[in-house]
Amino acid sequence: MAARKKAKKSNVKKAKKTKKTKKSKKTKKTKNATRGKKAAKKAAARKGAGRRRKKAQPKARGKKPRAKKQAKRATRRPAAKRPAVAMGRAAPAAEPAAVSGERIGVVTEYQPHLALATVQLENGSLRVGEMVRIKGNSSDFTQTVGSLQVDHVYVDEVHAGQTFGLRVNQHAREQDVVYKVLQ
After folding, report:
1. How far apart are CA 90 and CA 16, in angstroms?
2. Per the confidence metrics, is the pTM higher than 0.85?
3. In 10 A of CB 167, how many CB atoms?
4. 171, 139 in Cβ contact below 8 A?
């Protein structure tokens, strides 16, 4: 009887062990199975195989009833009449406005954070207090010379051949021409 009890106990222990191992194997299988599914979904999303777009169906083009066509024409705006262009003739170019004063230099650089134009003086001289006009494709303004700088030193007068800094009131661009306004 004692032998039977021992055998039953050992059988029960073995059965419990096998159940545990079976459960753990099952959980491993389900984890691996879900991992495989997730990986497959990710791969499909990357490849775009899982998502298929529907092709747009071409619209059936049949004849529309005349009443709709006529109503549509009535709502349209009349086309604006364009002026006739003479063939073979070019339009006369607008002549540049007369600039008063003599050309003295060209803007070589503009520093917007300082509102400072670097000017190369070609001929003549320029003093503080004189009027200058800066003219270019998109800029055209007149101002009084407030300060002149040569090599970061304030000066009262500059001569031909010098490059100097000129404080400007508006935006000046490279290649703008500087004129000395005659009074």
Report:
1. 103
2. no
3. 14
4. yes
What would the DSSP string read from start to end of the chain? -HHHHHHHHHHHHHHHHHHHHHHHHHHHHHHHHHHHHHHHHHHHHHHT-S--PPPPPPPP--PPPHHHHHHHHHHSPPPPPPPPPPTT-PPPPPPPPPPPSEEEEEEEEEETTTTEEEEEE-SSEEETT-EEEEE-SS-EEEEE---EEETTEEESEEETT-EEEEE-SS---TT-EEEEPP-
Query: Which is it for strands 153-155 and 163-167: parallel, antiparallel or unpaired?
Result: unpaired
Give the pairing of strands 131-135 and 163-167: unpaired
Question: Which has the minimum average pLDDT: 20-24, 92-96, 113-117, 165-169?
Answer: 92-96
CB-based burial label for 164 (10 Å; 0-12, 13-18, 19+): buried
Number of Cβ within a 10 Å radius of residue 108: 13
Closest CA to 105 of 131, 133, 147, 128: 133
Distance CA 183, CA 161 (A): 24
What's the token pair of residue 103? 């050309």
Q: Residue 50 CB: number of other CB atoms within 10 A?
A: 12
Q: What are phi and psi of 113, to 5 degrees?
A: -70, -20
Tell me the per-residue pLDDT of 46-99, one tens digit each, with 9 for 90 and over.
655 555 566 666 666 665 556 655 665 656 666 666 565 555 555 444 444 555
